[in-house]
Amino acid sequence: MAALRIPRSHQTGLAKIIALDDEAMGELCAALESTDPALIPQEFAAKLGAKVPRIPRDDLENILRSLIGIYQVRGATSASAPEFAEEICKAVEDSKTESLQLPPERRQAFKQRVIKLLGYEGSLGTTSKALDVMTEHERILCGARVITDVRSVFADPAQKPTAAVIVHMLKISYHQDSEHKDFYVALDSSDVRKLKDILRRAELKAKSLSTVLAGTGISILDAP
Predict the structure, then answer these.
(1) Number of domains forming the structure of the chain
(2) What distance, in Å, lies between the first and last C-alpha atoms of the chain?
(3) 156 and 103 in one domain?
(4) According to the 3-state scheme, what is the secondary structure of 213-224?
(5) Is residue 102 part of a domain?
(6) Would you state the pLDDT for residue 2?
(7) What is the mean pLDDT of residues 163-186?
(8) 37, 129, 131, 214 — which has fewest CB within 10 A?
(9) Does the structure show a pLDDT above 70 at 113?
(10) What number is the average pLDDT over the span 128-141?
């Protein structure tokens, strides 16, 4: 496999894993063993938080961000856990970032930690794959806003308005190719009613599918 490079967004989490004491590492592993997967990493971190009091919440979120990235990269390879852990060690050693250092005396312990952490497919692995499936789209919604205003209608520009119309401007914010973008579309009151009806039908479909899946024993992961 090609040599790995540690993205800046994952460096802090890996540094935290290196620095964890054995008791905190034990708490993290026990929590990962007993925690159900989640769709959103922050939700998964919240589930773990109460079980790992030795790890501050911010540190835990950084660790999980790095681990989810590791699971996603490994999923695209055929490397075994020990092979992939070795590549992670090499990437950390090759990193020129001051905050991410792997002392020689900590190398073997860190490698064993990575191997151990790669063994939680039921919780961490499923969360990683769910996030990957959920975001495998050209555009991902990240926000929306409606701005409503009144526009005057003039029969004679020199006279006061003879009528007015209410206009809604829908702003859709989304991510595409790692960039934040916005899209605007004008709506009238009829359009707003149509959108409400469409979204209501989507909720009903989701409830129907949830009922069907509940009978199969398949866990349903959804955003809170």
Answers:
(1) 2
(2) 37
(3) no
(4) HHCCCCCCCCCC
(5) yes
(6) 63
(7) 92
(8) 214
(9) yes
(10) 79
